[in-house]
Specification:
4-stranded antiparallel sheet; single chain; Immunoglobulin-like; 2 domains; about 140 residues; alpha+beta
């Protein structure tokens, strides 16, 4: 055996220590203060039109945006439409759609058509039986 094991361990420790600072700089997460994140402007509410069509009339349904209820109906019709005032950023919106159907109702299709502030229509479909609770993203 050549060399001292203690000396080799010391050299290995020094090499790891020398690589520690550059490795820390590469793997460090960028920190943004809360003030910078809060300073980002929120999108102003804009008028969008949401049309909901069911194959079976629901007992009730709700539409939520960012956890806030923006539309609720009980004993809804097979097709309803409403103008909603919600923030609509360039990336689009996510709406949480929940519906309850009468007991014994067959598998039901739901068609959601969102007309954005620019007048472009975006269509999504959902399927459910008994109840339905989905988050739908509109670009």
């Amino acid at each position: 055996m050549r060399g001292s094991p203690l000396l080799r361990a010391l050299l290995a420790f020094l090499a790891i220590l020398a690589l520690g600072y550059p490795l820390r700089q590469v793997t460090r997460a960028e920190f943004q203060p809360a003030e910078a994140a809060a300073a980002a402007p929120a999108a102003a509410p804009k008028a969008v039109v949401l049309q909901v069509t069911f194959t079976t009339s629901p007992a009730s349904f709700t539409v939520k945006h960012l956890g806030r209820e923006v539309w609720a109906e009980t004993n809804g019709a097979a097709s309803v439409e409403r103008k909603l005032e919600i923030p609509y950023p360039a990336e689009g919106v996510e709406l949480q759609f929940a519906a309850a159907f009468p007991e014994g109702a067959p598998l039901t299709a739901v068609r959601l058509v969102l007309t954005d502030p620019d007048g472009e229509a975006h269509e999504k479909s959902l399927w459910g039986s008994g109840s339905l609770d989905e988050v739908v993203a509109f670009p």
